[in-house]
Amino acid sequence: MIDHPLIRHKLSYIRDKNTSHKDFRQLLDEISTLMAFEVTRGLPTEKVTVQTPLEKTVAERISGKKLAVVAILRAGLGMVDGVLKLAPLAKVGHIGLYRDPKSLQAVQYYEKLPDDIGNRFVILADPMLATGHSAVKAVNILKEYGVKKLVLMSLIAAPEGVKEMHKHHPDVKIYLAALDKKLNSHSYILPGLGDAGDRLFGTR
Predict the structure, then answer these.
(1) Domains and CATH numbers, the chain
(2) Is the pLDDT of residue 104 over 90?
(3) What angle do CA 151, 120, 154 make, to 5 degrees?
């Protein structure tokens, strides 16, 4: 859990059904930046020598292959720019999944990832962790590409989704802004914020 007063403040507005699509997009972007700051806290660094205007000094830079952020389509797109504000050289991948309305299982329809994704620290981005099926499927795909270092960054989760992720991928750390109480009969998070994709893109 990333517990920060700015995140809690912005989360109150993003949950509000009266928040416009424009403001929803901006809030999701802002919260993603705040969360990415914590997600990247453990990145390895190496010492380098730099010349300041006055003298040489030892400083630190991120070592090895850098970041990649992978968005689960559609709603994950709203989190990408927030990460890129902190790490503008990060590569971006996309995994398209939709939830089958009958089985509630994740069905893949699209995939485009950087060639060197297996050597990068991957932030998998999806605002909602509901049943957990989409996140599990996306992690399965990333691991097939050889990804070994990855985390899941979600705005809001239900306990059921967290349990599902821990069951299938106990090695993947989950970063959340809020853990809500449960799923309803249609597998929406309660209290949640509704359908993040629809609110992000104004499709409903």
Answers:
(1) 5-201 (3.40.50.2020)
(2) no
(3) 20
